């Protein structure tokens, strides 16, 4: 967020610098066959062409021959080298003439020797050309949509300052988008959740769209392999971005749960948009024309559908839908404004294309925060599910499966520390259920579990083995201490004052077994269970400790 704020500040400084560029007088008309640049300049001197404000976005006629633009610098004139800049020129080539002398020809996709601006076309106007002399720009005709251009003339120091500011802003914005995409991809691989994968794909497509429109992928990135592919690649990235955004929003905002009626329309857009890419890639005139005709209306309709689905999901309680709305709504508004600008509206806001880049970085940050929240939610839910799966629902102790798994891990640590096994069985528990009901039996189990948990250490492994049986695995406790602990537990259960009948209280019989090198968890349980059975036969409410030969009885008086 700090980097984005810094980039926004730099962008503001760049806009302020751009406002200080030298004022120009510009006129334009379409190119006619056989015309020479000097003749065009002479005609413009005698009868000026239609004028336009070069600081406001101007869409030039997309005629087959192209367009002429006459550029004049009003007094006072400053001598020296200057830089003529053309922003948002589209993909066509632009040439600068001094009379019939060609100064340079360049384009965003040009990787040759001429000067290359970052996000704009630039021409070096040498000091030998007086500042008072009009210059002529020729925008070559192209099949791609024309750009909405602004034109400025600056000194080299002013240009380099503005160019450096824009580079910091654009590089920072694209770096944020790609970093967030990489983070989402890592989450997708770690969590095996395609929600993060669709988000990463969407961010890459959006960054590619803005990189192509601004020329950033050509200069400074110098990706020459994309030369000549900007129009088709941009259209494909636009269609796929809507598709990936739809797939992402379906899972992220949980549309299935909160807005089930919109699931099918949103999913349909996710499927239809790649079909437009396929139609365009066929090269068949009918299919290509159909794809071009449908692309922009479907993109706008799909964006509005996602906005509506997100709004309804948020209104119905989807927490993550709010993250989607905060990131998506400003970007949708800017996209619509930029689209209107391409149709000749909002000419006084040449900063909109750069704002779309900054908003892409903002959206990446907001949605990444939302995805991080989703990852924490998923982890919490998984931990909770694991806890519920491992816990006995009545007593809250480990259930038999979870306790056995934990006991196996303890025994696998080796013989460095003694391990004692305690097997508990409540006395006359069936009689308690029969006389007082199962609700009373459940309360007794909960009370016994709480008493055992309070008496044992947090490190001791306590679980409910089944019915009225409990088990405990004590580490670092020798035979004598294990017997004393079991005797104390007998007294604690007896003091619970749970009446089985008028004369009998709820008690517990405990069998104790010390772990031997040959023991497994199952054999240890069997020996402790056998010792507990001996305690039952000896009169209950007592402890019996098993040895290697047979059980050793602890007298009843020892546990009173």
From TrEMBL:
CDD domains (alphabetical): GGDEF
Keyword check for Signal: yes
GO biological process: cell adhesion involved in single-species biofilm formation; negative regulation of bacterial-type flagellum-dependent cell motility
Residue intervals passing through the bilayer: 166-191, 198-221, 233-253, 265-288, 294-315, 322-343, 355-376
GO molecular function, one term: diguanylate cyclase activity
Enzyme class, broadest EC rank: transferase
InterPro entries: 7TMR_DISM_rcpt_extracell_dom1, Diguanylate_Cyclase, GGDEF_dom, Nucleotide_cyclase, Rev_trsase/Diguanyl_cyclase
Protein name according to UniProt: diguanylate cyclase
Organism, as annotated: Luteibacter yeojuensis
